[in-house]
Amino acid sequence: MTTPASTPDAGTCPVTGPSLTDPEQIVQLYEDFFTDPRTTYRQMHRDGRSVVPVAMGPGQGTATVVIGFNHAREILDDSLHYPTHPKKDQPRRGERRDHQDLAQAVGAQHVRLRSVIRESLAHIDQHALRSTVDHAASGLIASFCGHGSADLVSEFAIPVAVHVFSWMLGLPPDRQDEAAQAVWELRTAEDTTPLTTLAWSAVEAARMTPSTDVISRLCQHSENLDDHEVVQQVVLLYSSGCLPTIDLIGNALMLVMTDQRFGEAVLCGSLGLRDALDRVLTVEPPRPILRPRFPTSLQIRDGVLLPPHHPVLVSPAGCAADPVMAATHARQVGNRSHLGWGGGEHKCPDEAAALAMLTAEEALGLLFESLPDMRLAPDARIGWLPNLYHRALYGLPVVFEPTSPLPHP
């Protein structure tokens, strides 16, 4: 069980670290940071810092980022003292906040929505899912394998994930182009409007003609979600399910193309795809910084003052550079100690994580089998979306010898 920071002995000052009020001690988490965050995190650790005051962007205020693995785990596991909303915004006892998605909900509402989503995802047929991924991936590969070049983000990672998630949710095939555009707007402009509009029509259709898909199960669940609640969960499943799956695939491909040791191990088969994806979740997680936590009272972590209700950002990417975990994270096989799925009661549900891993593993396996000689395009410049909470590539141009599609049953 975790406890808040203890009261120091009289005459001693427990605040020994950098201050949120000292501009010289605040690290900028924007501009150059987006290009190479690993260098920033490694420098923080070299300076012996595991809790660091940061600026989130011009005019966006300050926060405290946690890059020490043990501190991160304790904070994620302690929603009592580090909730996901400032205490002043918490619902009163007995009050239920309607029209929230799982990520925003707290207390009984969080438990309610989490159980609904987990049970709805648990009914997905794994064999049918695998077949759907194979069908989508093989069709996409066939569309560009004869060209000798492709952008593996826009031509593979995004469409394969959108196709699979739309199938899981129950979106009809003739709406999937619309879904792809809505996901693109969400990914690049953080605009949920197109996706929300699409979700409303899908929920209305599921109410009229129920099926066995996830949206229908959300509508039919015994917790009796109203339409607005179902729409919110559908948008969440795209934003917190589909988007990370896109970036898990994209970031895995980027590491294969740019990290020689990792790439050779994956392509020769000495490193299985499941272990490779866990490596990606360790060093280039799609969610490099998790949803802010807000201390309910004054806390002190690693000598750094955490004011009440001031945002605390746990960084799975930063924790990967923690010397405490260096030996574990250096292993490419069997490392499951990362925080790529989050932690505590807001951790990604196991059912959702398993679906994302299966989708990425199947899609990547078929791509590597089809185009074993693909490599980064000579003039390629890897760029990242300037987003603190998403580690997402603009694109990943590759070249390969033109080939015919593999025979597909």
UniProtKB/TrEMBL annotation:
<dbReference type="GO" id="GO:0016705">
    <property type="term" value="F:oxidoreductase activity, acting on paired donors, with incorporation or reduction of molecular oxygen"/>
</dbReference>
<dbReference type="InterPro" id="IPR036396">
    <property type="entry name" value="Cyt_P450_sf"/>
</dbReference>
<protein>
    <recommendedName>
        <fullName>Cytochrome P450</fullName>
    </recommendedName>
</protein>
<feature type="region of interest" description="Disordered">
    <location>
        <begin position="1"/>
        <end position="20"/>
    </location>
</feature>
<dbReference type="GO" id="GO:0005506">
    <property type="term" value="F:iron ion binding"/>
</dbReference>
<comment type="similarity">
    <text>Belongs to the cytochrome P450 family.</text>
</comment>
<dbReference type="GO" id="GO:0004497">
    <property type="term" value="F:monooxygenase activity"/>
</dbReference>
<dbReference type="GO" id="GO:0020037">
    <property type="term" value="F:heme binding"/>
</dbReference>
